[in-house]
Amino acid sequence: MSDRRTAILEAAATVIARRGVRGLRVEELAEEAGVSKALIYYHFEDRTGLLRRTLAFVNNRAERYTAEQAAAGQPAAETPAGPLRRLEQALLLELQDLPHVRENSTAWGELRASAVFDPELRGELALASVIWVREVADQLGEARPTAPESALTASAERLTALLEGLSARWLSGILPLTDARTRMREAIGVEVAHLAGLD
Amino acid sequence: MSDRRTAILEAAATVIARRGVRGLRVEELAEEAGVSKALIYYHFEDRTGLLRRTLAFVNNRAERYTAEQAAAGQPAAETPAGPLRRLEQALLLELQDLPHVRENSTAWGELRASAVFDPELRGELALASVIWVREVADQLGEARPTAPESALTASAERLTALLEGLSARWLSGILPLTDARTRMREAIGVEVAHLAGLD
């Protein structure tokens, strides 16, 4: 991906986290990215094209910082943590009071909410959700290898939807971050105990 | 509440569900409610006042249709359903493909998301959440009277946050309604089994 294109997507995430999808104006985006409006249209055709690519960008960036921080928290010399610890780590990385996590989660929440009004964003959003649910189901399957596939998927769907719900409450300032993290950690335990009971 | 005031709040919920909070224009609202712009400012002072009252209105309306439908589903002649059945009924009423449920849930999701950008909405939103969590915790307590209070609250926080997460996925068209309802029903079972294990 060209540097200019990346700069535009980064700026789009910033502006959306600041003003929401409906507050995204191409003038402000061009200024934030340090490019011309024409270049934005050259790279992304129209507003929908830009929003779809920003959704994919925000999603990939979340995966990247998740992977980086998971790696940073796990020195090679140490015994690798168990599958549940890795799952907990991956999910809780989305609930951190760091500027880039806040920005990314806010932009994601906005883009997701705007898909209610904009069917053209749904394909990108559905794909991201399916991949995420699959990953969490795989991690649950490492912890509970004998649980049925359908039960793993259902648990993963609940855990990821819960994370989005808790994240929205945290970002809108009505649930303290520590409570959101505690609820998420407990939920993983509750779901894993449920899967163990299905063996 | 005066009829005119109610008409404005109903229209505000409709317009927000149609265009989002940022798409709410006083001109369109006045037209939808069949009143003058001046009357809107007379009743609600400013945009923030209007949004705060709309949030409370949407929330009260959800409680009202929940109560009505729960009553309708439970003829007086029948034995009252157990506490779990009532809880399931109350939560699943938010996941129904009916125009008024869709409108109410979409408007609620929009108002909740806009609290990320508008701290003045947070008081109303936090109050509504606390009351809802309290109600669900009480219903869980009827089913599991010996579970500790803190565990009931934690379960209720998870179930209500999950419902918001599932509802957002359903409304944005990425999770079929039947799946959302199934996940919610399962989650109640999983949480109740968890509470039973704490006795």
UniProtKB/TrEMBL annotation, chains A, B:
Domain HTH tetR-type positions: 2-62
One annotated GO molecular function: DNA-binding transcription factor activity
InterPro entries from the UniProt entry: BetI_C (IPR039538), Homeodomain-like_sf (IPR009057), HTH-type_TetR-like_transc_reg (IPR050109), HTH_TetR (IPR001647), Tet_transcr_reg_TetR-rel_C_sf (IPR036271)
Pfam annotation, one family: TetR_N
Keywords, sorted A to Z: DNA-binding, Repressor, Transcription, Transcription regulation
DNA-binding region: 25-44
PANTHER family: HTH-TYPE TRANSCRIPTIONAL REGULATOR BETI, HTH-TYPE TRANSCRIPTIONAL REGULATOR RUTR
Name of the protein described by the UniProt record: Helix-turn-helix domain-containing protein
UniProt organism field: Streptomyces microflavus
